[in-house]
Fold Ras-related protein Rab-34.
Amino acid sequence: MLETRSAVYKMLQPSASEERRIVKWPPPYSMTMTPYQERDFDVTVRRACLSVSSAPRISKLIVLGDVAVGKTSLVNVFCHKKYNNNYKPTIGVDFEVERFDILNVPFNLQIWDTAGQERFKAIAASYYRGANIIMLVFDLTSLLSLSHCKQWLEEAARSNTGNYFVFLVGTKRDLMVTIIVFGVYFFLIFNKNSHKTL
Ligand SMILES: Nc1nc2c(ncn2[C@@H]2O[C@H](COP(=O)(O)OP(=O)(O)OP(=O)(O)O)[C@@H](O)[C@H]2O)c(=O)[nH]1
Ligand SMILES: [Mg+2]
């Protein structure tokens, strides 16, 4: 575990793990659902890969969103393939590094998993600066958590004047099935009862 968490360990490896080696442009799940129509790496990506650099290539990703929407779970599944049903709130921020080889060039992705709890906001906000990617996470079963994403983005944008990518990620899709099943169940019961009263 220590080895897989160590940034230096990952950087010193001759290559990234197989699933982190990206040599072909990954297509979107659905071409009709995405605003991005590119079919190959952007010329800036190819140029960045070709340029000679002695310094490690690092991108910073910050993960933001309401309390308990599933930010840490998302990061843990992505980095360690581990999922825990027990809720353990993040205190301030957690940090991970993922090594990628893009077109055979090593890149490191710093992942800053922030706390959603109000009392840790000031600590978490001090890590917003210099983000290349802002990931806004919401719970698919909570409209409120989606509407709060705008505020999270505004706060992160205040600390970041440069260019950054924004990702909006919905979690807990499995719970939507439960909600739909309950919804249909109550709808049927309600309709059955209302017929009786007619
Ligand atoms: N059913 C279901 N539960 C999930 C999913 N993702 C996360 N959870 C649960 O939601 C709870 C909160 O998850 P966390 O990942 O700790 O949430 P968080 O956003 O990091 O919370 P804070 O660190 O307090 O901001 C935990 O009990 C998780 O097991 C999911 O996809 N489906
Ligand atoms: Mg967390």
About this structure: The helical segments are 2-5, 7-12, 43-50, 71-80, 121-125, 143-147, 149-159, 173-197.
